[in-house]
Each structure stands twice: as structure tokens, then as C-alpha cells.
Design brief:
This protein has about 190 residues and is mostly beta strands. Helices cover about 15% and strands about 35% of the residues. The longest helix has 19 residues. The chain is globular and about 50 Å long.
Length: about 190
Amino acid sequence: MTVERRAHPGWCPAAAVALVTAAVAIVAVATGWPDRVAGGPSPAMATSGISRSPEIPKLPPGALLILPDGRRVGGTRGSYEFGGSAADVPWLPTSALMPTALPADSPLSVGFNDGSAVGEWTASVAAAADAQGRDSSGVGGREASQPPLVQVQIGGIRQGNWVLAVRLFLADGSGDGTYFWSLEVR
């Protein structure tokens, strides 16, 4: 006697293989199986088995240079330490900055763009040709022992092409940042 085997009318072998493969993958990820077999987490999976984006570093607020005519020019952030993140950028050359024209000996103000109070600060300039800022000169600063400020005042800068670097410390002690501007002083 011969028995004929018939597949169920809704049966599809490829669908069954796909379903079993998906079930195995779900169980493997949920139990951490790929991590244990490979000796560590796979690059695409966090240890929890869920894909995560890389953590975005916390940055100190930006800084604004306020010119005598009222223009506000955002600085380019260099070195900073804030919220557990840090970067070390000793100097930015003129070629990395947008130039800002201003009259010689103009008083300048700098502050955080969100209005945060400034504690300690320092400012220096170097000739635009000095791409590493090795011959920079101090043009202002103060220690943290004085009352906080919203903006710091920098004396006038003589005629020439310069890179201005200002390091601002948040008065609450949460961090600091150094900001750069390319100045064309006429």
C-alpha cells in the first residue's frame, strides 16, 4: 500500500525556512548569543542587543565676538572641556576661519552665545601668517576670583591681519572653551 504525501495548500518551504531563521535570530540577540560566541559585542550591536547611535559629545556654549558697530560674529570652537567631553585644538590658522573686518583699536566684547556667565578668561592674538600661534601675545584676561561677567572686554587690536583666540571658563565651573576669529584690522 502506498501513501501519498501532500503538502498543506498554504505550505511554502521557503517561508518556513525564513520563519525559523527569524526566530533563531531573535532568540540569539535576546540572549546575547552572538557576543558570547564571538568573544565580544559585534560592532553593529550594543551589549543590550539594540543598535545604538554613537554618543554625541557635550559641547560648551558657543561664543560671540561683539564689534563696536553691533555686529555679532560667532567664534569657531577649538579646545574645550565640558560635560565629560574634551577636545584639544591648540590653534586654528586663518585659513580655517572666516575673516571679520574691523577698525584698528576698536574695543571688542566676547561672551557665551547663550548668556552664560564667564569666570576666568584669557585672550591672545597672533599674526595671520603664524599658522600655529607660536608667537601669540596676550591682549586680555582675568582670574576666576573676580565676580562673573556676561561679556568680557578686550582692548583695541592694532592694524594687521590676526587670529584672535579667547578662552572662556563658565563661571559655574562646568567647563571651558577656546574660540577663534580671523580679524582684518584696518
